[in-house]
Amino acid sequence: MLSYRHGFHAGNHADVLKHLIEVALIDYLGQKGTPFWYIDTHAGAGVYSLTEGFAAKNAEYQSGIARLWERSDLPAALARYVDLVRELNPDGQLALYPGSPWFAAEAMSRSDKLRLFELHPTDAPILAENFAEQGRRVQVKQGDGFEGIKAILPPPPRRALMLIDPPYEDKRDYQHVVGALKEALKRFSTGVYAVWYPCLSRREIGDMLDALKKLPAKNWLHVRLDVQSPSADGFGMHGSGMFILNAPWTLPAMLKDVMPYLVATLGQDKGARYTLEQGGDL
């Protein structure tokens, strides 16, 4: 199933949560000063226009990054994330939104490397073109990221962040996420693994989260942002969540600071709220 294009959703509330946490994880790993890898199983196109094409059609960014763009009261972690978006828009106009690989490339040291997978036959070449000037630091492979990660784990530096955020158009993706992480932890038990998922009226989501909590990682952290109440007909995404395995000890405090702000700023009705839970040695 290759109909999904992330460009339709670029910069929405789910991207805000995902990329806020991605940047926080990268900054933490970068503090040590030794190289690490960023691995993206579903990397997309890398950069998205907000003024034309897919993103302009539904303008989902208006309920996401646009609500933070002019704010002067951002918590530190949110300000860091928004500043990276500003780097892509130096004239101050919100016209472009970075994908996960772009955030990683900008936040990481030049000695760190990126390994990017994208299955879509249109987005994969665009992704490669967007990172062509990065040379050997960034490797792009058109293919199934769930399968591709088997060949690169464990990474040579024995330090890595892996982002897993499939479109979940195919309901089997929920099982694929669990299976991929079981395999990844066998090969590389100390990696940091971050899973994004949509909040939909699907039983598979709860099943996936229950399975993730049982995986043999040092710890886990789960954060969820609901921006509105679920629709009466059960359709549509009313929020999103991130599940992190081997999360850094600094992440819970950051999220306790930032999540109430996101609820207040991105919330669309009285159903707006956040959930934060953790387990293991965290």
- What is the terminal-to-terminal distance? 37 Å
Structural class: alpha/beta
**Care to count the β-strands?**
10
Q: What percent of residues are in strands?
A: 15-25%
Rg, rounded, reads 17 Å
Question: Total helix count?
Answer: 10
Order the strands across the largest sheet as they lie in space.
5-4-1-6-7-9-8-10
Largest sheet: 8 strands, mixed
H/E series: HEEHHHEHEHEHEHEHEEHE
Question: How much helicity do the residues have?
Answer: 25-40%
Low-confidence stretches: none
* Morphology: globular
**What would the average pLDDT be, to the nearest integer?**
94
Q: Summary?
A:
The protein has 282 residues and is of the alpha/beta class. It is built from 10 helices and 10 strands. The chain has helices spanning 13-30, 54-58, 66-69, 76-87, 100-107, 123-130, 145-148, 173-187, 203-213, 251-266, and strands spanning 37-40, 47-49, 96-98, 113-118, 138-142, 160-164, 192-199, 219-226, 239-245, 273-280.
